[in-house]
Amino acid sequence: LLNITGTCIIESESFNKLKFINLTTNFRQADDPIYGDLLLRVRKGEHTKEDLKILQTRLNHGIDEDTDEFVLYPTNKKVNFKNDSCYKKIDEKEWIFRTKYKGNEHIMLDLKKQFELRGMEELKLKKNCKVMLVRNIDTQIGLVNGARGTVLEIHKDCVLVEFENGLEKIIPMIEWKTELGSLKCIAQQIP
């Protein structure tokens, strides 16, 4: 990775001032600790034969392309194709939320690139479309990165979503902040 001066980021003075933290709580499988533990064992290479048997029961050899079920695809291209085909079937008004930026231009370029790569530069939503949070909002009530739901209402700067856990929550535009020394940039988008 290069910083804004073009040098390797790990060689910069700022890198040596960073404080590293180790995250230990898995929020995605909070409702299913047995499955969460299984995935952790697989990640560490400590899985058992029983773990593999359980995973085999979740293997789907034939995907019904018309399903509304959650499907994992191996590439973003396939995910985007599936999402686009489902989205086009929804006969509702389309709302477009464009990411807003302010701050240092050099850092802004990097932040814009990150949002473009994640498909968040321009967020298109319709009532009744399926959505997934891409950032933790409130871990205590399950609004975490990866939480899925359905859009119930759309307003100028927020959306009302019913999440799979039954919670209805207004999701406003929030800020993503990035800093490099004294240089700062903020992006605002619906997560």
Roughly how many Å apart are the termini?
25 Å
Major β-sheet profile: 4 strands, antiparallel
How much of the residues is beta strand, in percent?
A: 25-35%
Low-confidence stretches: 1-6
Strand order of the largest sheet: 4-5-6-7
Helical amount:
25-40%
Radius of gyration: 20 Å
Determine the structural class based on helices, strands and strand pairing: alpha+beta
Secondary structure tally: strands: 9
Q: What is the overall silhouette?
A: globular
Order of helices and strands: HHHHEEHEEEEEEE
Q: Mean pLDDT, nearest integer?
A: 84
Treating each run of at least 4 consecutive H or I residues as one helix, how many helices? 5
What's the arrangement of secondary structure elements?
Layout: H1 13-16, H2 33-44, H3 49-57, H4 76-88, E1 94-98, E2 100-103, H5 105-117, E3 122-126, E4 130-132, E5 148-154, E6 158-163, E7 168-172, E8 174-180, E9 183-189
Antiparallel strand pairs: 1-3, 2-9, 4-5, 5-6, 6-7, 8-9
Can you describe what's shown?
There is one protein chain. With 191 residues, the chain is α+β, with helices and mostly antiparallel strands. Helices cover 27% and strands 26% of the residues. It has five helices and nine strands; from the N terminus they run ααααββαβββββββ. The chain has a four-stranded antiparallel beta sheet with strand order 4-5-6-7, with no helix packed on it. Strands 2-9-8 form a three-stranded antiparallel beta sheet, with helices on one face. It has a two-stranded antiparallel ribbon with strand order 1-3. The longest helix has 13 residues. It starts with 12 loop residues before the first helix and ends with a strand.
